[in-house]
Design brief:
The mean pLDDT is about 85. This protein has a three-stranded antiparallel beta sheet with strand order 6-7-8. Helix content is about 30%, strand content about 20%. The chain has four helices and nine strands. About 30% of the residues are buried. It starts with a strand and ends in a 15-residue tail after the last strand. The protein is of the alpha+beta class. Bound molecules: iron/sulfur cluster (SF4). Iron/sulfur cluster binds near residues 70, 97 and 106. Iron/sulfur cluster (SF4) binds near residues 70, 93 and 97.
Length: about 120
């Protein structure tokens, strides 16, 4: 899997970003801010709910756990601090999402398990 990191200005066009690549995260102590700040995580999650219908998946074949934006690298799991195996980080909308949920932006090809050199 190829991972592309881009720096995008505020007001980015997310559907366009989905085509062009996934925007880079703001980091805090080497972790995305949303994994360290519950308020930011909740805000970003609410955007996914309101604008992209994030919620329970009705199709097990299409869920966050197999989405190309679902990050479960060892480094990310350490940031998340959850060892249930059911929580990862959504690179697209910048929040900690559940493996068995999904949103309108689902794209097969995930999860992200290792960083590519
Ligand atoms: S389906 Fe993909 S883009 Fe949508 S919330 Fe889950 S991981 Fe993020």
């Amino acid at each position: 899997m190829k991972i592309e990191i881009k720096i995008s200005p505020d007001g980015l066009d997310l559907p366009k970003e989905i085509q062009d690549g996934i925007p880079v995260d703001k980091m805090q102590d080497a972790c995305p801010v949303a994994t360290q700040d519950p308020m930011i995580n909740a805000e970003n999650k609410q955007v996914a709910i309101d604008d992209f219908n994030y919620g329970p998946s009705t199709n097990p074949e299409e869920a966050c756990g197999s989405c190309t934006a679902y990050n479960i690298t060892p480094e990310m799991l350490e940031c998340i601090g959850d060892d249930s195996g059911m929580v990862g980080y959504c690179q697209m909308y910048k929040f900690m999402c559940a493996a068995d949920n999904v949103c309108d932006s689902y794209a097969s090809g995930g999860p992200i398990e290792d960083l590519v050199a």
